[in-house]
Design brief:
Layout lengths: L4 H6 L20 H10 L2 H5 L2 H15 L4 E2 L6 H5 L4 E4 L3 E4 L5 H5 L7 H18 L6 E6 L1 H10 L7 H9 L1 H25 L3 E6 L7 H22 L5 E5 L5 H9 L3 E3 L6 H7 L5 E6 L3 H4 L1 H14 L5 E5 L9 H12 L1
This protein binds coproporphyrinogen III.
Family: Belongs to the uroporphyrinogen decarboxylase family.
Pfam family, one: URO-D
Pathway: Porphyrin-containing compound metabolism; protoporphyrin-IX biosynthesis; coproporphyrinogen-III from 5-aminolevulinate: step 4/4
């Protein structure tokens, strides 16, 4: 049996204490992250400098002894590798060249050129497999096609993904061709991460909840399943975690139809509902409100224990319902861990 608790949970085991990690565990709430980030220059320089990307991945493992490490990179590296211009504007988020027509789509580069941009990420994975403690598995990741497409179409984050939804309605052919291109690039990218040493992969569909109900199956589940099937064909035992954030009642369908071993639940999901409708079919991951790591105190301790208790009847990985925010206190993370591990 594996000594890696995360892999045991993903294999369906109910553990006395769940393994713990946090989305965005390498991030701006940590002073050591901010120092390495300053040394690297820009956020993208940090992503593409393997020694420094490995260093920020390791920082939260050293500080908190989390049960998993997640590769330091970003879901928007795939659009960049496909030829989109990408910058991160301090305090505002990403900016990309937009795709609103078949001509824009045609200007993207070929799939077989993406490794020219992405190869430093594979080097980061190789360094991490050498340097991580043996009991800490490495999670590789990518964005799901719909979520990546929302940024490629709008050229930035938007509150409601209106530009992507308009292309979906107005030029379905271009929209679907873009999803197919991202899907193919993502399969290649994740296979390369696994070959380099990632032991689990997670697919972030952060904007799944913005998809209208009638097309959830077509644009969240079907591309997700395509990726899962392609990875499984090469690596039958690879554990895969899906994160269809905001999927609500569709969480159960998502798990059933994609066949993921793990599913990350966002903050809006009630553990009592998920324990009944999702957990019997997959290991659940989540779902503490990240704001509690800003608030701290008894509220944090109580909510943490409630999440652990709510999912104690099955396979569970303790995590947040979304990423930890820059204003969270590093000490509150210790308090959360104490409440999980006792
Ligand atoms: C939507 C999305 C992105 N990136 C990601 C998602 C999906 C998860 C989610 O919903 O949060 C995924 C991601 N981004 C990052 C990681 C690294 C690993 C980790 O979780 O620790 C992961 C897994 C680093 C990052 N990605 C980003 C930072 C902050 C950049 C900085 O240091 O200035 C980090 C640590 C920047 C980023 N990256 C993205 C945005 C919109 C932004 C700007 C907003 C922000 O600043 O938080 C796109």
């Amino acid at each position: 049996m594996s000594d890696k608790l995360l892999l045991r949970a993903l294999a369906g085991e109910t553990l006395p204490t769940p393994p713990v990690w946090m989305m965005r565990q390498a991030g701006r709430y940590l002073p050591e992250y901010r120092a390495t980030r300053a040394q690297a220059g820009s956020f993208l320089d940090l992503c593409y400098t393997p020694e420094l990307a490995a260093e920020v991945t390791l920082q939260p493992i050293r500080k908190y002894a989390f049960d998993a490490a997640i590769l330091f990179a970003d879901i928007l590296l795939v659009p960049q590798a496909l030829g989109a211009d990408l910058t991160f504007v301090q305090g505002e988020g990403p900016r990309l060249s937009t795709i609103t027509s078949a001509d824009d789509l045609a200007r993207l580069g070929p799939l077989d050129a993406i490794d020219e941009v992405l190869s430093p990420v594979y080097e980061t994975v190789r360094i991490l497999r050498r340097e991580l403690p043996p009991e800490v598995p490495l999670i590789g990741f990518a964005g799901a096609p719909w979520t990546v497409a929302t940024y490629m179409i709008a050229g930035r984050g938007t509150p409601d993904q209106a530009p992507a939804r308009r292309l979906m309605y107005g030029d379905t052919t271009t929209f679907e061709a873009l999803l197919d291109k991202i899907t193919a690039a993502t399969i290649h990218y994740l296979l390369k991460q696994v070959e380099a040493g990632a032991e689990v992969v997670k697919i972030f569909d952060s904007w799944a909840g913005a998809l209208p109900g009638p097309v959830f199956e077509k644009y969240a589940i079907a591309p997700g399943k395509k990726i899962v099937d392609a990875l499984r064909a090469e690596h039958p035992d690879l554990p895969i975690i899906g994160f269809p954030r905001g999927a609500g009642g569709n969480y159960a369908t998502f798990v059933e139809q994609t066949g993921v071993q793990g599913v990350a639940l966002d903050t809006s999901v009630d553990p009592a509902w998920a324990a009944k409708h999702v957990q019997p079919h997959a290991c659940v991951q989540g779902n503490l409100d990240p704001l509690l790591l800003v608030q701290g105190g008894e509220a944090l301790t109580k909510a943490t224990k409630d999440v652990v208790k709510g999912f104690s009847g099955g396979a569970h990985i303790f995590n947040l319902g979304h990423g930890i925010t820059p204003d969270a206190s590093p000490d509150n993370v210790h308090r959360m861990l104490e409440a999980v591990r006792g």
